[in-house]
Amino acid sequence: MVCYSGEHSSSFMASGKDKKQSQQPELAADILIPYLTNDVALNCLARVPRWHHIILSQVSRPIRSLLFSHQFYTARSILNCTHDLLYIRVGSYSAWPATWFYIQQKPDPSLTRNGALIRVPQQPLHIESSAYAAVGYKIYVLGGFVDGEFSSHVWILDCRFHTWERGPNMKMARCGASAAVLGGKIYVAGGGGGPSSSHGGTHWVESFDPDIGVWEAVPCPDGVRNKWVSDCAIVGGGVCIWVGQTGFKFDPKTNVWEAFENELQSGWNGQNCVVNGVLYCYDSCGRFKGFDEVNGRWKEVNGVVKDLPAYMSGARMVSLEGKLVVVWGESDLNGVFEHFQKKRMELQWAEIEVKKDGNGDFWGKVYWWGNIEIPDWILGRCPLFYHCLSVSI
């Protein structure tokens, strides 16, 4: 694979050249923490939360080198000290292409927790209308529209070091496809029909196993093949695909497809996430809803309306450390120019814990709600918030 890296806007992130020169600390020569063996020091440093790494990197050169090493992230994984980090994609109407950022958390013991956008290197090839999926510490950019054609390219962002690499191409060129992750595998559906597509409906649904790096066709029924797919999500251990007003569910264990026989296909607007095995959505009326698989019904999440705005423009949802996190901000022309007259763009996020009571009803509690600081260079460029993913680092 070909790797790409770029200069990070934060002092914490080194440029691609610096990363190549950075080496793991020599345990016999570079002392991480005085009076401690480097094995013990590594065990301690690996437990430091991610949001403190910027400060930690400034302590010494050996520690900074360690933070950019595979050794460090392997230790965090073994010690089960990884954290979920939010990555969002922000662009503009015309001034600059959409770019990935991560949200640098600022822990606050109060109910308000602010964050700041930190830019990551731009993807080497500018592609729009891609599908996106996160597996572990990697973000996968699937297909899209480039140079007037649909693309089968796969680009991978390694969020540990913020480097890009090419992944194995999909079997079919796609634009505007939908994707979901189940059991560590990526499932992508729809978005075909471009001039570069040579397989047609044979590979309308594909799966990718990152461990072996191979795309495989998922045979699908006529109701799915060559149809426009509006969304894809994981429900009840299966891959659910929405085709117009109809829904289909694929069980990877049995390779069996079935049409929905409940309300799962209704009340849907495409904004969804799965938290602790439950599918949630945010509807056009500004309500959070969870899907009750036992009764086959969507139910409103009670208890959150009083603590959040009546309507959150451009809301995106994601699972973060077992909680439901919603990020929202301006996503259309309504009110945008009034914000720019004030030289600011509003982007906020909130963490909600949702539980199910004995009657099968959903109840939510807002743990915190804060602002996300927007870098000055973005202001005045009509920024738009597009996507949000959770990555484990």
What would a concise description of this structure say?
The chain has 393 residues and is mainly beta. The chain has helices spanning 16-21, 38-45, 53-56, 61-67, 70-78, 336-341, and strands spanning 3-5, 84-92, 99-105, 115-119, 131-135, 138-146, 149-158, 163-167, 178-182, 185-189, 205-209, 214-217, 231-235, 238-243, 246-251, 256-259, 272-275, 278-282, 288-292, 297-302, 316-320, 323-329, 347-356, 362-373, 383-392.
What share of residues are in beta strands? 35-45%
Distance between the termini: 22 Å
Report the average pLDDT across residues.
83
Q: Label the overall shape.
A: globular
Number of helical segments with 4 or more residues: 6
Main beta sheet, described? 12 strands, mixed
DSSP summary, beta strand count = 25
Low-confidence stretches: 6-28, 331-343
Q: What percent of residues adopt helix (DSSP H or I)?
A: 10-25%
Radius of gyration: 22 Å
- Helix/sheet category: mainly beta
Please explain how this structure is put together:
Residues 100-370 form the FKB95-like N-terminal Kelch domain. By secondary structure, the protein is mainly beta. It is built from six helices and 25 strands. The protein has a domain at 38-78. It has helices at 16-21, 38-45, 53-56, 61-67, 70-78, 336-341, and strands spanning 3-5, 84-92, 99-105, 115-119, 131-135, 138-146, 149-158, 163-167, 178-182, 185-189, 205-209, 214-217, 231-235, 238-243, 246-251, 256-259, 272-275, 278-282, 288-292, 297-302, 316-320, 323-329, 347-356, 362-373, 383-392. Strands 2, 3, 4, 17, 18, 19, 20, 21, 22, 23, 24 and 25 form a twelve-stranded mixed beta sheet that branches. A five-stranded antiparallel beta sheet has the order 1-8-7-6-5, with no helix packed on it. Strands 9-10-11-12 form a four-stranded antiparallel beta sheet, with no helix packed on it. A hairpin with a 2-residue loop joins strand 5 (131-135) and strand 6. The longest helix is centred in the first third of the chain and has 9 residues, at 70-78.
